[in-house]
Design a protein that fits this description.
With about 260 residues, the protein is an alpha+beta fold. It contains seven helices and 13 strands. The strands form three sheets. Strands 8, 9, 10, 11, 12 and 13 form a six-stranded antiparallel sheet that branches. The chain binds thymidine-5'-phosphate (TMP).
């Protein structure tokens, strides 16, 4: 499959034109950033692992009727996705207090919330993705009320599903971030889940030990970042072809598959 020119490069992914105007190729990089790119590094093989984990989750979500941008995985680092117009809001769903919620309100990390908490952040690197309210979203027209309702209801369904999915493999889903996009299908404007779901965008703790197996290992300079992501992939039963393979070999194969 021929991919077209680069249309956008973010901190962890690159988007290329797809084989037709309605599609894009989403390429997962090994770059890791935190705190609005104040901290950066390269975690060899991270992009490959996230590509497989996100594919697995998007497929399962499609199966239960959650519309997503995902079409298919193309190779070790890339997937074919529907071209969408991204809603400039990050939806964060929290089941347990951690991260910025813990810092902002001084509540101990690990405190279990009585029900899931939904937060909205305005997508702006220049402003460091500030926390905003539903009213900000309305007043500034970042989404219309129907879209906001749909984003909340999809986010809650996704949370219920992912809680169970991860519970089944001994992981606690602490929180996660979602992005949605608009597309036109059958002359209708629809909202679909976009971006990725991976240990870059979720907090996942081992059920028995509370060991962190997500990007907090990078943010908190704990080491073993790749090993944490690999453990999540292993428990999900993905990455069969990666086992025992070096990241370099995986990258070579990715390049070969692209040709
Ligand atoms: P936070 O506690 O740092 O606000 O993060 C909440 C969740 O959102 C956590 O699972 C990590 C995820 N997240 C992203 O995916 N991208 C981001 O830029 C940030 C800040 C958080």
């Amino acid at each position: 499959m021929k991919k077209g020119s680069k249309i956008y490069e973010g901190k962890a992914k690159i988007l290329f034109e797809g084989p037709d105007p309605d599609t894009l190729v989403q390429h997962f990089k090994d770059d890791a950033t935190a705190f609005n790119a104040e901290m950066r590094d390269v975690i060899e093989g991270k992009g490959v692992i996230n590509n497989y984990i996100s594919e697995h989750i998007m497929l399962r979500l499609n199966e239960i009727g959650i519309p997503t941008h995902f079409i298919k995985r193309l190779n070790m680092r890339e997937q074919l996705v529907k071209r969408v117009d991204i809603v400039p809001i990050e939806v964060v769903v929290r089941n347990v207090v951690a991260g910025t919620l813990s810092k902002r309100l001084g509540i101990a990390e690990g405190t279990v919330l009585p029900h899931p908490l939904i937060e909205f952040y305005y997508k702006s690197d220049a402003l460091g993705d500030p926390l905003v309210t539903e009213d900000h979203i309305m007043v500034f027209g970042w989404a219309i009320p129907e879209e906001l309702d749909e984003m909340v209801s999809l986010s809650m369904r996704i949370n219920d599903f992912l809680l169970g999915l991860f519970y089944g493999i001994g992981l606690r889903l602490i929180d996660f971030k979602l992005e949605f996009g608009r597309l036109i299908e059958d002359d209708m404007l629809r909202l679909v889940l976009a971006d990725e779901i991976s240990p870059d965008t979720c907090r996942l703790w081992d059920m028995n030990t509370n060991e962190k197996l997500d990007k907090d290992r990078f943010r908190l300079k704990m080491g073993g970042v790749k090993e944490g992501y690999q453990e999540v992939a292993r428990r999900l039963g993905v990455l069969p072809r990666m086992q025992g393979k070096t990241a370099e070999r995986a990258a070579e194969e990715s390049a070969e598959e692209k040709e």
